[in-house]
Specification:
Length: 253
């Protein structure tokens, strides 16, 4: 029975890339102690990594899941993070919306804010914003990442270097006491440009990435003003970030 249940947990986390303790308890009718033993065993076998409240798929620092897979995971958490982020945008603001499913979740809130100017290199976000007459959308040129539908590279950096922006909302691959990291070199460079030109930089990340590190360094924590994550983020990492002077907002889920 243990082997069968653990194999099914592997299937769950492979498909979802993240799983909560409560999900496992409900699905298999087991106690939290049993869940912890299962996850500890599977972590030792290299299948997953335990985080506060559950576990995430064990992946390489250089491996980013494809967009379609990421878009189906932690949708409730991403919606809650986006709702908190929307509270920081005022009518008349110029904002940058970076790549990633969490930042994209912010786009739907733009229709209720008033007149805003939005810079983005994410084509999916631009298409969604095109439905809102109050949004002026500015896109850069650059190299297209087909599966992600984003553009980056020297033309994008040159385009966005000409503008000063009120608030930059950045998606990331990971955040630790060492700083912000991501998976794609071109997009990391573009984000560095935007962070330099923005009056305020806000990182949007689900709790899986809090305390984790991806392959490309983006910036130090001192370059970040606010981090918005969900309430499942590891409390000890949140505390460490706050001690550096960063404001951390944990959206309740």
């Amino acid at each position: 029975m243990n082997l069968e249940r653990r194999n099914q947990i592997i299937d769950m986390i492979t498909q979802q890339r993240a799983v909560k303790n409560s999900e496992i308890m409900e699905r298999f009718g087991v106690s939290i102690e049993t869940v912890r033993r299962d996850l500890e065993y599977l972590e030792q076998q290299g299948y997953l990594r335990r985080v506060y409240g559950g576990a995430v798929l064990n992946t390489s620092l250089s491996s980013e899941p494809e967009y379609n897979s990421r878009a189906k995971v932690l949708t409730r958490e991403k919606a809650a993070i986006a709702a908190e982020a929307a509270k920081l945008i005022c009518p008349g603001d110029s904002v940058y919306l970076g790549v990633g499913t969490t930042v994209q979740a912010l786009a739907v809130h733009m229709k209720n804010i008033g007149e805003v100017t939005v810079f983005t290199n994410a084509l999916r976000t631009a298409v969604e914003l095109s439905e809102f007459p109050n949004c002026t959308v500015i896109l850069p040129g650059g190299q297209l990442r087909a599966k992600e539908l984003t553009v980056s590279g020297y033309p994008a950096e040159e385009n966005f270097a000409r503008f000063n922006i009120d608030k930059a909302f950045i998606g990331i691959g990971g955040i630790t006491e060492s700083g912000i990291t991501d998976f794609h070199i071109g997009e990391a460079q573009l984000h560095r440009q935007l962070i330099k030109n923005a009056r305020q930089t806000i990182v949007l990340t689900d709790s899986r990435k809090v305390g984790q590190k991806a392959i490309v360094n983006v910036c130090a924590l001192e370059d970040i003003d606010i981090v918005i994550t969900d309430s499942n983020a590891p409390k000890h990492v949140v505390k460490s970030l706050e001690q550096t002077g960063i404001q951390v907002i944990c959206a309740k889920v």
